Amino acid sequence: MTEIITLDGPAGAGKSTVAKRVAKRLGYKYLDTGATYRCVALYFIEKLVNPETDDIDRVMRSIDIQFGEDGTVTLNGADVTEAIRTKAVNEYVSPVSAIPAVRTAMVDLQRRIAQSGGYVIDGRDIGTVVFPDAKYKFFIDASVDERARRRFEEERAKGFSSSLEEVKKNVITRDTIDSTREVAPLTKASDARVIDTTSMSIDEVVDAVITTVQPGTKAKIVLKQKPKAEVNKMEAKEETEYKNTDDDATLTPEELEFRRALEGEDEGDLTKGEIIKGRVIQFDESFVFVSLGLKAEGKIHREEFDREPAIGDEVEVQILQRENNAGEAIASKIAVDRIRSREVVELAWTNKANVKGIVKAAVKGGYSVSVGGLPAFCPRSHIDTKRNLEDSEYLNNEYDFRVIEKKGRDLVVSRRAVLEEMREYNVSNFMGHLNDGDVIRGKVKNIESFGIFVEIVNGLDGFLAFSNIAWEKVKEPTKALKKGEEREFKVLHVDREKRKIDLGIKQLSDDPWNNFIAKYGKDEVIKGEVTSIKEFGAFIKVYPGVEGLAHISELSWAKHVNHPKEVVKVGDFVECKILNIDSENRKLSLGLKQVKENPWESVDKRFPIGKKIECTVRKIFKNYAVLGVTEDLEGTIDVSDFDWKNALVNIDNYFKEGDTVSAVVLAVDGMNRKIKLGVKQLSQNPWEIFRSAHPVGSVIEGTVNNVSDVGAVVQLTDSIDGFVHVSQLDTKRIERVGDVIKTGEKLQFVIKSIDSDKRRVSLSRKDYFSAMEKRDAEKYLSKEDPSSMTYSFADKLKNLDK
């Protein structure tokens, strides 16, 4: 397989140029790894990606980078070959490449592209991280001064105007970032050949690489011969990385003229490039004319003035032309403004001071800003501390900016840096003078479900817990204040280390709890208003800012209060007794029933057993009903006390909740707060009546209602039935009950037993036969002689029921 050749090294060592020429001479492909990182930097700039808050892994999955055969680079389908070489990308690529997730994704991409071999690849971690197993590794290095000089020449050739010192500073900064980043820092592979290019030409470096890869190869092999002039031109261009130039090249024509003017190179009353003060003497639509003292008059284009000039205004200008055909000096106000602005910018850059700038237009990735007439770029993320504001919010407005990058005439400014510094100063100054107990003003910023954030000063918020809004309970705390509302707050606690401030509103007034407990004590009766009702009780406001709880068990002497709303409702004014004061936990226990006499203490006298009373049906259950005897007393009726005949009834057939009914007091237990009532007791017990009229052993007539295998049910009265067992149907053995007794028959029976509690009457037909036989025998013996007794008994028994 064709090998992979890696060239690592610091910025400005010339490795990219060497890598391209090595690839060309060996017939390999060149993989521009820097372009991959530049694509990511461009994407971050265009999409406003924030590495601190955005999900970088997700962002990287949305990036697709492709290299064309013609050297073009596409990002998500768009040709970005030129776009990734802009100044903005140059400045952003190093911080972006230091992000671990970015480097991981780019390493994977580079490995996929070059996996087939035949590539020359340069970078900073190619031989150590991306292709650690590459057979040929080189570390291209040079002194800092030499690398800075080469980069300076390269940038000047591209039209950039940075100074050599600025370039050197940037090279050192880049070295620091690359060598200290968390992932894949710039280091030399242990098996890499080091080539110090400080005093070497490009060809010498290329030859050193090729002779290592292909021993025996002659130096400077040219695969395709070009015309000598073209070769010389190409080599001259490439050699600019290794040559120096005159310092005058870094100056603009205006600055050069200015310097020459100061050095006195031109002669005459007015010197071209000279800066001089004059006064406006007249102006028209096109020009402004100024007096330049005894020397001459000058004219300036009207559009160079931001505002309309006034006669007598002093203006500083630079002489562009000493005298035209009309004898006038051609001067420029803008030229001086720019020179002065550069002085201001240089001073601001050195001292980290602010400069004034006007936002002129929204451009790709940010805004064009005029700093005293000098063009500057403000990245979108640096225009404000806020996000997602419209461009129109900033256009044509003047702000303070901080110069954050300066390379020659190229300026990058930040308004956010100024705002953050101002905010930090204000916050630090404010926090330094803030103490617990201070009263301050603030503006409601955000209302959340757990509390309210209050803006105290720009960049510093305080927190207001709902419990600190008012001494009394706030029903809807999220609506207690309005967003944007300004008012006073009391500082409850200041945490300077964490910059947290707890605020309160209720603390602006005296604590009503202290006033309350100073005025009232336990067992006192007070009046209050029911403010809210819960299942467990009612909250009652008894003092401004003080509420107590009357538990459901303390609302009424009645045992069964299903819900507090049965006793009170919101808005009711009630008397209550203070049952307990918990000062430590600020809790107040109240009772409503305690303000009235305990009715259970005299219940025995008021409701003696057997008394008939009127009650209200309050609740019906399956086996009992609850009746209101009085407002505070309740009694119960068991299901067995509704009907004398039926022990189990459906109570709903007798009562409806809310009905007023009569009942009889059956039992009273004041200690356990119980009253037992009955309804059936309103009438006389039919069993007692029956027992008196029909004692055991007497004969009774009944109607057979039901016949079964074990006996028959016999109706004796309207409310009482009896039962005759099969064994009691006849004096002789019975096979089938239906043979001797039938439904509907009226027959005579003897009452064997009566159980009033169980509502049972046992009957006997057999005893009845025996009784009748005995009676008839006695009657016959008293009238007939003994010789006729047998016939007489048999005949009478057969006709006993006829």
Provide an overview of this structure.
- The chain is of the alpha+beta class and 802 residues long.
- The protein folds into seven domains: 4-242, Rossmann fold (3-Layer(aba) Sandwich), CATH 3.40.50.300; 251-337, Nucleic acid-binding proteins (OB fold (Dihydrolipoamide Acetyltransferase, E2P)), CATH 2.40.50; 352-420, OB fold (Dihydrolipoamide Acetyltransferase, E2P) (Beta Barrel), CATH 2.40.50; 434-508, OB fold (Dihydrolipoamide Acetyltransferase, E2P), CATH 2.40.50; 512-595, Beta Barrel (OB fold (Dihydrolipoamide Acetyltransferase, E2P)), CATH 2.40.50; 599-682, OB fold (Dihydrolipoamide Acetyltransferase, E2P); 691-787, Nucleic acid-binding proteins (OB fold (Dihydrolipoamide Acetyltransferase, E2P), Beta Barrel), CATH 2.40.50.
- Helices cover 27% and strands 30% of the residues.
- The protein is built from 18 helices and 38 strands.
- The strands form eight sheets. A five-stranded parallel β-sheet has the order 2-6-1-7-8, sandwiched between helices.
- Strand 35 (711-715) and strand 36 (721-725) form a beta hairpin.
- The longest helix is centred in the middle third of the chain and has 19 residues, at 333-351.
- 27% of the residues are buried.
